[in-house]
Design goal:
The complex is a heterodimer of chains A (about 500) and B (about 150). In chain A, helix 1 packs antiparallel against helix 5, helix 2 packs antiparallel against helix 3 and helix 7 packs across helix 9. Chain A is about 75% helix and about 10% strand. In chain A, the strands form 2 sheets. Chain A has a 5-stranded mixed beta sheet with strand order 2-4-5-7-6, with helices on one face. Chain A has a two-stranded antiparallel ribbon with strand order 1-3. Chain A folds into 3 domains: about 200 residues, Four Helix Bundle (Hemerythrin (Met), subunit A); about 90 residues; about 150 residues, Heat Shock Protein 90, CATH 3.30.565. By secondary structure, chain A is of the alpha+beta class. Chain B is of the alpha/beta class. Chain B has one domain: Response regulator (Rossmann fold, 3-Layer(aba) Sandwich). Chain B has 7 helices and 5 strands; from the N terminus they run βαβααβαβαβαα. In chain B, strands 2-1-3-4-5 form a 5-stranded parallel beta sheet. In chain B, helix 1 packs across helix 6. The two termini of chain B are about 20 Å apart. The chains are: A alpha+beta (about 500), B alpha/beta (about 150). Chains A and B meet through helix 5 and helix 6 of A and helix 1 and helix 6 of B.
Chain lengths: ~500, ~150
Amino acid sequence: MGRLLIAFMAIGFLCLLAAGATAAWVMQRNEQHTAWVNHTYEVELGISEASAALERVEAARRGFIISGQPTFLAAYLRFEGDVTRALGHVAALTADNPRQQASIAEARRALAVVAAERAQSVALVQRGRTGEAVAAFSAEATAQPMQHLRRIGAAMLAEERGLLARRDADQRASVTTFYTVLAMAGIILLLVAIIATATVLRYTRELGASRDQLRILNDTLEDQVAERTADLSRANEEIQRFAYIVSHDLRSPLVNVMGFTAELSAATGPLAELVDRAEAAAPDIVTQEARLAAREDLPEAIGFIRTSTQKMDRLINAILKLSREGRRTIAPERIDIAAVADNAVAAIQQVVDARGVTVTVERPMPALVSDRLAIEQILSNLIENATKYLQPGRPGEVAVTASQARGRVIIAVADNGRGIDTRDHQRIFDLFRRSGQQDQPGEGIGLAHVRALAYRLGGTIDVQSSLGEGATFRLNLPAVYQAPQEATA
Amino acid sequence: MNQHQPVGIVMIEDDEGHARLIEKNIRRAGILNDIRHFTDGGSALDFLFNAADGPSKNGPAMILLDLNLPDMSGTDILARIKAPDSALRRAPVVVLTTTDDKVEIQRCYDLGCNVYITKPVDYENFATAIRQLGLFLTVIQVPDVEDAG
């Protein structure tokens, strides 16, 4: 849009520039033309002066021949000089025109002839031979040279006139060109102006429309956010309900599987006993298959079924626990984090001592208003984990610290244990996922639970660790729990 | 136990396996009372209130009730049994279900259930719980239905 406008402005300026340049050119042409016109008049004037002088020379000579008065002779001599001067002037003016030059040369030749005749007749009168002079004059009157000179003068005038006419035509042509260029520039300018105005108008309309849209968006933003939040909470609720129903309904058949497996297990006792007795009483009726079935196959199969169903039971319980946690009402209260951490350590003190781990809880700790049960569960999970995954050959040290930053409380549980591979930093928070060597009991539930609780409290949890370097879990919570506005929907 | 008339046990449980395990363990506790098993709420209610040999016509009964039934909610059955005009309103009802949801438990007691037991998934615990329930059944007194009616 902006580029288009700039292009139009550039075109407009170019048109103006062209118009200006043309005007300057036409002005120059005009000046030249005026100079030429003046020149022509000057030449014409020169020619006329030369002709007039020539006529005056003639008249003075006639006067001298007729009257013999010396004043006529003086005039004759003065006018003779005038003719030569005038002719020289014209020759200088028309130096650029070979045709005029030729005419002038012609005129000079004719003039020389005429001047010679005149000089002769004047000389005759001076010597008193007036009669001879008059006769010569009469003979000369009909002679060609003078006529020829007049024609040359006329021709030169005609030549100058012709030049003037051509220059006039040129001038008119250049004026026409100027007006044409001016008109075209005007039309282009007008077009550019129209298009630019249309573009600006459209641009403005679009701007206005987008501004209106923006305002509408802005006005409805809160509604949209509320709507989306409601959608999210609904979806979340649905997932939790789904998890609850699924895990709940899975339990029912599991009760049967576990129950009848136990019954089966109980039934193998008497069976094995029977096989034993039969073997003792009548070894020939006990086959190898029966012995194997009663003593090995059945107990083995039952054992596998049992461990698998027990694991399934634990997993289902974990899902149930998580979904229930999501439905639990959060009851914020003032919590002494250090006391909660101490309690969490005390609850597993025996295990901690057995593992040879020292746990320090740093004091003082910032105040926190949140859900006590959730914090207890988070801390006991994190502390339990910290004391569990040790680096072999290094006595475990766990530090629980807390700090406050801009309305948030950050609780960190740091250990010097075996650490967590950076690739697993996200994964360990997923349900049923664990990291590293699977040498410790566990289902991969604790951290998933911790994260669910952290989210529930409006917080986050992350881990900083690398293999063999220990791990630091940082729980970032709002210092004062704020109930989400749509959570009750 | 009521001395003059044997107390019939009505078990409303949609899962055949559960029913069998419950019966086995009750028997192991030494309970020899008649146990009638129904897998859906409709036929159970029909038996309870209308059958000629059902408890409302005949005599004391106690009810083992599962909440998750195919045709109706166990709480609806509980409400019917404990309704003020019900002949069976004094009959002890033991809710025996997998649900351990607090709200559900409260609701059942509000409706008048006498005992609420969550079925343990672990069979050891399950068997123990049912056997204890059986022992409990041997000592509780069950009011006569006629007395109530």
